[in-house]
Amino acid sequence: MHTPRRARLGDIAPWAVTALAVIGGVAVAAVAAVVGVAGDGPVRAADAAAVAVPRPPETASTAPPTDAPANATPYDIAALPQIDVWSVTPGIPVDDAPFAPMTGELARPLTAAPIFADPTGQPLGYLPRDAAYGGTVVPVVERQPHWVKVLLAGRQGLPPDGNPAQTVGWLRAADVELTPVTAYVEVHLASHTIDIVSASGVERVASDFAWGKPSTPTPVGRTFVMLTRVVPEFAYTQGHPLVYLGVQSATMAGFDGGTVAVTAFHYYRERSGANSFGCIYLDGPATDRLAQLPAGTPVIISS
């Protein structure tokens, strides 16, 4: 668990695959990516065809999806707060389906884009196209003709009184560009394995690692790579990058004197068992391999 330092934190061909992991007897659809052609660039979500995401019977819904109407209202972005790793936004939703399938797409604002808790409501904040601390390339978890629901950095509340779990929000399709997911990460805490899944297959990155102790557990569910950065001041990383995720501690409002408690993959000398503050401690090669993944890469952590 680490605090990004403000002072310092300054193509694989598209593919299609649906992964179904059975963990503790519960079927979990990890992610299904869209089919593309090597060399395709970003497309406006409003112009792209709808993506049909296969779902296993255990998670299938009999209710038809709700299609919210388009919203072309111009909003004063300057009057809205930026939603990022530092933000605490009481009205923003937390992820209510942390192990549900994703659409296999990443969204990035064309320019600063308003974020909505509900497509029929008013914006709670905005997502910039670029930010010093990342979090602007985000996985799409639901797709409608005029809207996309995405994972976000930032928290709804601070523990122990508020809910710091993975947050979500809605963006207007006309405000974003979409690119296909090229890989995702599966972390299994019980079996102590980390895999990168891509069109090439399943790559075992680690067969042991350290995770959060009971008082500071590693958050489980779906999240994403928010930011990857080498922080020389963190000598214990021995020069390896930290791969910061879009979810923060369930029990700590801040860490090491900072006001955030971000979960991360990083190198540490003691890297086996439940002994971290929530981060996942790895050896150098595993850390360096995960650091090669692009921003927005989905990460699914299962207990």
Question: Topology, please?
Answer:
Blueprint: E1 18-23, E2 26-32, E3 43-44, E4 105-109, E5 113-116, E6 123-127, E7 138-143, E8 147-152, E9 167-172, E10 176-180, E11 183-188, E12 193-198, E13 201-206, E14 210-212, E15 221-229, E16 242-248, E17 262-267, E18 273-276, E19 280-282, H1 284-290, E20 298-302
Parallel strand pairs: 11-20, 14-18, 17-19
Antiparallel strand pairs: 1-2, 3-10, 4-7, 4-10, 5-6, 7-8, 8-9, 11-12, 12-13, 15-16, 15-20, 16-17
Description:
The chain has about 300 residues and is mainly β. It folds into 2 domains: about 20-35 and about 80-180, no CATH class; about 185-300, L,D-transpeptidase catalytic domain-like (Beta Barrel), CATH 2.40.440. It has 1 helix and 20 strands. It has one helix at about 285-290; strands spanning about 20-25, 25-30, 45, 105-110, 115, 125, 140-145, 145-150, 165-170, 175-180, 185-190, 195-200, 200-205, 210, 220-230, 240-250, 260-265, 275, 280, 300. The protein has an 8-stranded mixed beta sheet. Strands 3-10-4-7-8-9 form a 6-stranded antiparallel beta sheet, with no helix packed on it. The protein has a two-stranded antiparallel ribbon with strand order 1-2. Strand 1 and strand 2 form a beta hairpin. The chain starts with 17 loop residues before the first strand and ends with a strand.
